[in-house]
Amino acid sequence: MFVLCLGAVAHAQSAEKRVKVAIPGGKHYLYRLTLTDKKGTPFSVKKPQAFLSQRAIDRRKRQHISVTESDLPVSPKYVKKIAATGAGIVGTSKWNNTVVVSVKDTLQAEELKHLSFVSDVKKIWASPDSMRAQKREYVVPELKRAEKTPESVYGVGEKSIDIINGKPLHEAGFRGKGMVIAILDGGFMNADKVEGFKNTTILGSRDCGYPRVESIFAEGDHGTKVLSCMGTNLPDMFIGTAPEASYWLIRSEVGFYESLCEEDFWAMAVEFADSVGADVINSSLGYVGYDDKSMNHKYRDLNGKTALISRTASMLADKGMVLANSAGNSGASTWKKINFPSDADHILTVGALTPMKKNATFSSVGNTADGRVKPDVMSLGNPAAVISGRGIITTASGTSFASPVLCGMVACLWQALPDKTAHEIIDIIRRSADNYETPDNIFGYGIPDFWKAYEQNKK
Questions:
Q1: pLDDT in tens, 63-120
Q2: Which CATH number do you get for residue 174?
Q3: Per the count of CB atoms within 10 A, which of 165, 293, 320, 403 is most buried?
């Protein structure tokens, strides 16, 4: 394993302790309201431009996908009536027809059950007494080439792309140009500042978490590292797997708690990604256990249907998008299995490899409770080259990084095969993998070969 430290580290506030502050709004609860229908909506499937970007509409048209009632926003009439009870509106999910609300006490939530258009009320979060205050870390002012950088235009990113045979696609001119990738994560510390992203196209950002933060670029750097696996474009130092793609950065994970509401935020995030026209989504997130143990998932729930987050993930290909999701890092723990939404159908669940193409011991295993092959595919994740929130090129281990390494190549392959649907791209990638004929619960279909995937499917 190599470790790179590029540039001079600025003296700064790194030693400062994170100060805790009161939860905005004081003690309160979040509830998920499931609605019966979408009556009273002013929206129509005949006028999708009112709630979808032209890019999202065009993506559907290319794949012969109709805009359906599930795409219609939650009824504003119902949302207004919910707000009139005094409940705060946190967010909505149109595909699930749900509304997340904040209330001061459980009695207020009980009153919501009496609304005629509410079919279910479920508690998904109880606020703690305090939360961590924001603090942006320092940024390394300049990147410099390290002595151990491989003699390749890909620099430290060479091994990641080599293992899945992506270089020939890049050499053929397919580097992600024209493709939009949405990244769901918990924070993108300094991704708007560090020198390493000077050639990366970031279209915008969105905060779907709760409480909202002042800036997703002042949160943790997990998302920064994920972005770097795909979006870095520093010739001779570090090139990611989709250096010419464009990126939306979306926060759905909240760092100071683990609760069921984060599944709702994730659903809101992918719906936003859909609305702005994303082609591919990377989610290096997954859930099993929560602070409130009564909310924990069970093995039998790994069926792609029970968890809200997994049901939502299973819809993405039908909306014309490909999701790459990290399998999870529970392989050496008592849980061992993949996380949620990695059990979803019609997605690419990604496990982690070592440079020797062995499975990382921490990489979560399958299969699903209903017998489907998981993980789907594998890529380098123990370790992978990344750029940290401090602007340092280094390495990190986890399926969190195996997933974006693969996700970037998904975008490049789809650029090369623009006539294919999301479902077809997923199938093509699985079929290119070296374990396709004999899949198992550790490697799934195996290590994909992206050049093979292209060669066997080009016109």
A1: 999 999 999 999 999 999 999 999 999 999 999 999 999 999 989 999 999 999 999 9
A2: 3.40.50.200
A3: 403
Burial per residue of 445-458, b for 16 or more beta-carbon CB atoms within 10 angstroms, e otherwise: bbbbbbbbbbeebe
97 and 163 co-located in one domain: no
Tally of domains within the chain? 2
Name which of 343, 303, 308 is nearest 326 in CA terms: 343
278 CB contacts (<8 Å, ≥6 apart)? 180, 181, 182, 248, 321
Closest CA to 325 of 402, 232, 222: 402
Of 312, 325, 322, give the one whose Cα is nearest residue 94: 312
pLDDT for position 145: 57
Whole-angstrom Cα distance, residue 395 to residue 155? 13
At 303, list the tokens: 């069926």
**179 with 317, same domain?**
yes
Tell me the Ramachandran region of residue 146: left when phi exceeds 0, alpha when psi lies from -120 to 50, beta otherwise.
beta
Give yes or no: residues 70 and 207 share one domain. no
Which residue's entry shows tokens 């491989």?
Answer: 150
For residues 323 and 348, the answer to whether their CB atoms sit within 8 Å is yes
